[in-house]
Design a protein that fits this description.
single chain, 327 residues, alpha/beta, 6-stranded mixed β-sheet, globular
Length: 327
């Protein structure tokens, strides 16, 4: 799998390459979601990606994201085909049934305001009110929607989809990533965005050049209020991300060798699919982690279900309880 020495951007670009058909058959796959999950909680990563526990997800964030991405792809593909861009009203009509199903499926969430006092209906109204202004920048032409990429690096296949890829008259590329977050990312989150870095490698392996621009499109904001925000916009961003990327791979390989996938216990456990307190957990997944926080939105406690012996924890002696589940 490669050594544990960290590489800079130039060295990574020398080693990264388009995945071959033969590699597709034998090499393990990784995605940004996987390594992001590893950085948040190694034990959750192990349960999910190493033990192959794949829960059926039923959460408004996932379903809403799919709905919004579909509406944006609808407009983007029309522009790619040099067709007339669909208007807000046309797009709303096309996706009306999907929206009604979304409201019916998550009626309780739609009735509950977020921390800023906004309802989902308010956010979606903002999305539609700004729809006609999307993708009208004459300097950039849409050349990819849900743009798939594969590349191989250090014995792993990285696979993903870029929400939108734009190109200007100079042949430069811009990566656009849609976000439905409640608030915009901090300057640090945007300056050192590992997801964007992986997308950059995907573009590089396919087109032989790194993108020059990276943009977050926060779909629940107006264009005059933080709708479009730059990422990887610091001079050293790509180098910093290269270092973080290689460090994460080193850590993944170390855990594979040692089995020390130590859990990270925090309030984030509440949203983990392997936590019995998560209301969206399924019966065959919710009891797989004993080391979760007892924190809940209506019970903000520091207690944990079972303490972790961080110095001696090893998954080889803490096997998944999947075999004990009654299906």
């Amino acid at each position: 799998m490669g050594g544990l020495s960290k590489l800079n951007l130039e060295e990574i670009l020398k080693q990264v390459h388009v995945t071959t058909a033969e590699e597709l058959k034998r090499l393990p796959k990784l995605s940004y979601s996987a390594i992001d999950q590893f950085s948040q909680c190694k034990y959750r990563y192990w349960l999910h990606y190493e033990e192959k526990n794949y829960p059926k997800q039923h959460a408004i964030a996932l379903s809403l994201g799919t709905f919004l991405h579909s509406a944006m792809e609808y407009k983007g593909r029309a522009l790619m085909a040099n067709e007339k861009a669909p208007t807000k009203d046309e797009a709303k009509a096309k996706f009306s049934e999907e929206f009604e199903a979304l409201q019916a499926d998550f009626w309780e969430e739609f009735a509950t305001p977020d921390k800023d006092g906004r309802l989902y209906s308010d956010k979606i109204n903002t999305f539609w009110e700004n729809y006609d202004e999307e993708m009208i920048d004459p300097a950039w032409k849409v050349v990819g929607c849900e743009h798939e990429f594969y590349f191989t690096y250090r014995g792993y296949i990285f696979h993903g989809f870029i929400d939108r890829l734009d190109q200007n008259e100079n042949g430069d590329y811009r990566v656009v990533d849609y976000k439905s977050a409640r608030k915009c990312y901090s300057p640090k989150q945007r300056a050192y965005a590992l997801q964007m870095f992986i997308y950059a490698l995907g573009v590089y392996t396919k087109y032989g050049k790194l993108p020059t621009d990276f943009t977050y499109d926060f779909l629940f904001f107006d264009f005059d209020n933080n709708r479009l925000m730059p990422a990887l916009n610091k001079e050293d961003s790509l180098e910093e991300c290269a270092d973080a990327f290689d460090t994460l791979l080193n850590n993944i390989e170390s855990c594979k060798d040692t089995g020390a996938y130590v859990p990270t216990t925090s309030p984030l456990c509440y949203w983990c699919e392997f936590n019995e307190l998560n209301p969206n957990s399924t019966d065959n997944m919710k009891h797989l982690c004993d080391f979760h926080s007892m924190w809940m939105p209506d019970n903000k406690t520091f207690s944990v279900h079972e303490k972790v012996d961080r110095d001696n924890f090893n998954v080889k002696s803490n096997k998944s309880k999947k075999k004990d589940i009654i299906w």
